[in-house]
Specification:
Elements (H helix, E strand, L loop, with lengths): L2 H11 L20 H8 L7 E3 L20 E6 L1 H5 L13 E5 L7 E3 L16 H4 E2 L2 E2 L12 E7 L1 H4 L10 E2 L1 H11 L8 E4 L3 H8 L11 E2 L4 H6 L4 E4 L17 H10 L2 E4 L4 H10 L3 E5 L10 E3 L3 E3 L1
Parallel strand pairs: 7-9, 8-10, 9-11, 11-12
Antiparallel strand pairs: 1-15, 2-3, 4-12, 4-14, 5-6, 7-13, 13-15
Helix pairs in contact: 1-9
């Protein structure tokens, strides 16, 4: 079956359109309720926390594709200004201020529900041109997710279980690999979970340099994992790769076909370029692969994606 037919079949089979009503703006984050969030908070046993974010600086992975650049950080006021009396404050007061310019999806980030369309349709079947305009995402802007993205996190270290710490580029992570990894970790994946899949691709980039990390070959989720993503009722999934799904993609002349199913049809929140290495080392040491995870996007009105500093607390 070719890409077009496979995408259409998966979209019809795994669609969540209308599941939470015609006006829904949260997608699968609806699976996290107050009970799930309270239960996740009880997973904090040791009080140790891990940032799952890469650094936001000029030494990032971006190479300019589709005008995505690395963050540009500029100082507006500095200690030099204060020492030389250039700031004009009374009684010796001085300070520093700074600004940053960056595409919202240049480093650790969430793909919002308005990020990807299928044949001109956005999440919940809405016409894409009525959702995202030059004014931004008028319906499912990332600001709607500023509060609810907190709950039970689960790490699936596929790189460690299936590979030798790292999966090779082009490795398609299928349902069997996800279930085998969960079994090896002794962890259950279920409704409302925020699943973090470590491939080891970022660890290799740290060791060897960015190279083709942004947009090049990489391990990732197989297109055929869409059924597992739908059936488990997970709230979100995040990986340590640039594009979440395997690259090169599994169909000839295709581009990110799994995105085309999971964002506009499942309403699944997708995280990319997360740094899962320190968390994975700790999980391997104590044998505990679930934790409290909070990963709120910045409430940027109308944005279709957002930087994030996810915190895993064990």
């Amino acid at each position: 079956m070719n890409a077009e037919d496979s995408i259409a079949e998966a979209a019809a089979k795994y669609s969540n359109w209308g599941r939470w009503g015609a006006d829904d703006v949260l997608g699968t984050i609806n699976f996290i309720g107050t009970a799930e969030r309270a239960g996740a908070a009880r997973l904090v046993r040791r009080g140790v926390s891990f940032s799952l974010a890469q650094r936001f600086d000029m030494n990032g992975p971006q190479k300019g594709w589709r005008r995505r650049t690395n963050p540009v950080h500029t100082m507006l006021d500095t200690g030099t200004d204060a020492v030389h009396g250039d700031q004009g404050f009374p009684h010796g007061l001085g300070g520093a201020d700074d600004t940053i310019f960056m595409p919202l999806q240049c480093s650790t980030q969430w793909d919002g529900l308005g990020h990807i369309f299928d044949h001109g349709r956005a999440w919940n079947g809405r016409p894409a041109d009525k959702v995202v305009t030059s004014e931004g995402d008028q319906v499912t802007g990332i600001e709607h997710l500023a509060a609810p993205v907190a709950g039970r996190g689960v790490l699936l270290d596929v790189g460690r279980v299936i590979g030798d710490g790292e999966l090779p580029d082009g490795f398609a992570i299928a349902e069997e690999h996800l279930t085998a990894t969960a079994e090896a970790h002794g962890v259950r994946v279920g409704s409302g979970d925020l699943v973090c899949v470590r491939t080891g691709r970022l660890a290799r980039a740290k060791r060897e340099g960015w190279g083709e990390y942004a947009g090049g070959p990489a391990p990732g989720l197989s297109f055929w994992s869409a059924g597992w993503l739908h059936r488990t009722e997970i709230a979100a999934i995040a990986t340590d790769t640039w594009g979440f799904e395997v690259r090169p993609n599994e169909f000839e002349n295709s581009f990110q076909p799994l995105h085309q199913v999971v964002l506009p049809h499942l309403g699944l929140l997708v995280g990319e370029m997360w740094d899962l290495d320190a968390l994975a080392a700790d999980c391997a040491a104590d044998g505990v692969y679930d934790f409290f995870l909070t990963a709120a996007p910045l409430p940027i009105t109308g944005a279709v994606g957002s930087p994030v500093n996810p915190l895993a607390i064990k």
